[in-house]
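Study both lines:
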Amino acid sequence: EMCKDEYVMLMTWKKTAAGEIIYNKCPPNATGSASRRCLLNAHGVAYWGVPSFARCISHEYRYLHLSLREHLAKGQRMLAGEGMSQVVRSLLELMARRTYYSGDLLFSVEILRNVTDTFKRATYVPSPDDVQRFFQVVSYMVDSENRDKWEDAQQVSPGSVHLMKVVEDFIHLVGDALKAFQSSLVVTDNLVISIQREPVSAVSSDINFPMKGRRGMKDWARHSEDKLFIPKSVLSLSSSEMDESSYFVIGAILYRTLGLILPPPRSPLAVTSRVLTVTVRPPTKPTEPLISVELSHMLNGTSHPQCVTWDYSKADAGSGNWDTESCQTLETLPAHTKCLCSHLSTYAVLAQLPKDLAMDPSGTPSVPLMIGCAVSCMALLTLLVIYATFWRFIKSERSIILLNFCVSILASNVLILVGQSHMLSKGVCTMTAAFLHFFFLSSFCWVLTEAWQSYLAVIGRIRTRLVRKRFLCLGWGLPALVVAVSVGFTRTKGYGTASYCWLSLEGGLLYAFVGPAAVIVLVNMLIGIIVFNKLMSRDGISDKSKKQRAG
């Protein structure tokens, strides 16, 4: 079996035998080589896999790396440190564009590693702006939108694991510059980071993280049940290791999405919680399990949850780098799992996925949903054909409204089928979600238009041409405006997720649909009450033509 020639991503992939990998030059805006494998499906038919860009580096990222090397070549330490600030600023600008290859993510990890090492060697204290930019870059990198890119990058290097180490090193770099008992909090869309410095001889209090009441805390962290508690007795050193100038740097990181991009354990196990890291230097070794961790569940229907810690030295075939022996699973509730751990590390919950998800992580199409949408499409098409056939006999304002309503529902059903049919690319899924948002809102708006038409008919103020334009503006224009504002405000973030092509449940974007829909339902109810009262009044009952126009 052979995969046929195909032109994708500005590249021509030549005919290749099943099982073979073909290499190609990266797109014009990058250097390196892209690869693609010809695969066989269960029926023995050859098909192309997804192209891999793990070895493609965009020109802008390569130029930034050259700039970094120039700053490193400067002899003066202060100049090198200031140069790193500029590198982080430039990297943040590149990441904010969200147009990069999986190879760029790996390259960015190396850039951040070099920046951290240079800050150390130059004894340059990063400014608060430097710290915020550094962690904002990390937040962009670990975003769930990059899940497929990280999966591609794992073929070349475990870049997400290296990124964890870089973040921990940078935290201690920042902590070393703090004053005694001083703390720092950084919050981004995907990270909450706390850094504090405590004298070894006088640790002030137990460690609680995250402090959800702190100003600037994101909703996803404030409303989660993720918690870390470290009694101050854990933070102690032996007398031989301690002197008056000794201090602890304590860093804690709550990753919103890191579990999605770390090398996965063997199926059916999966990371089903957020990832929480605590790092302390100099390291302490508790004599008994005293570290309490609570982690909320991110997936429903999982079974056999177990608390785990990350072990950089381990590469077990089953649970990957996750160690199942350092934590006890105290209690498992529907919303979260409580753990008691014996050493400071990175914590998560591993659990078995439901059989359907374990067999097909990309999600199996819902057969009842597809059948329902298909039947609905057939019924709507039949109705449209009937209306087209008898249009000259039934042409009216109400018929026009009904046809537009049917078109919006029909388009919604087709888009649902498109989103369910197979694994879509990120761009297609985003577009599908945006159009679904538009057509669902249009359906509600055309119902509102029907109510408006009934009201105008009852009060006897219908002017066909003028009203028809207003109907069209309400039915199609208002949803288009809402979707345009939502897309512009979010930059399509939240349109489509790794599991479905619809609005994300996180981040508040769903309110851009629920809010207008709820308002329309309330207005419809109000208009319905008014129309009913009009028709039931003495004047309304006597005028049969008004009743007929109002439906």
Remarks:
- The first helix runs from residue 59 to 73.
- Confidence is low (pLDDT under 50) at residues 357-364.
